[in-house]
Amino acid sequence: MGFVKVCRRDQVPQGEGLRVEHGGEQVALFDVNGELFATADQCTHGAWSLSEGGYLDGDVVECSLHMGKFCVRTGKVKSPPPCQPLKVYPVRVEQSGDVLVDFEAGYLTP
């Protein structure tokens, strides 16, 4: 399958997340100083959406449920209570402005 178009570049807000979905898998897109990153949308601690209500500070998203923090570049936990990292996904922006995510190539950073 490879990369799948999920939205347009101008739909991803600066400093916030945007949830996209494909095949039942929900991913959050984050714009960090013009660079896009894609992670699992659900916090690994409280099953809470990171794109809806999460707070992005630089490349760290804070879950609004229990204030756990994750790096959106790597998925690694930056602050508990979460113990498990987020799955991260390759993301690509085409010259046309289309944003594509490779849902099959999602991985956990060791």
Automatic annotation (TrEMBL):
Annotated keywords: 2Fe-2S, Dioxygenase, Iron, Iron-sulfur, Metal-binding, Oxidoreductase
Molecular function in Gene Ontology: 2 iron, 2 sulfur cluster binding; dioxygenase activity; metal ion binding
Pfam name, any one: Rieske
UniProt feature coiled coil, ranges: none
Superkingdom of source: Bacteria
Leader sequence residues: none
Domain Rieske: 4-100
SUPFAM superfamilies: ISP domain
PROSITE patterns reported in the protein's UniProt record: RIESKE (PS51296)
Transmembrane segments: none
Alphabetical list of InterPro entries matching this protein: Rieske_2Fe-2S (IPR017941), Rieske_2Fe-2S_sf (IPR036922)
Designated name of the protein: Ferredoxin component of biphenyl dioxygenase
Organism the protein comes from: Dyella ginsengisoli
Primary gene name: bphA3
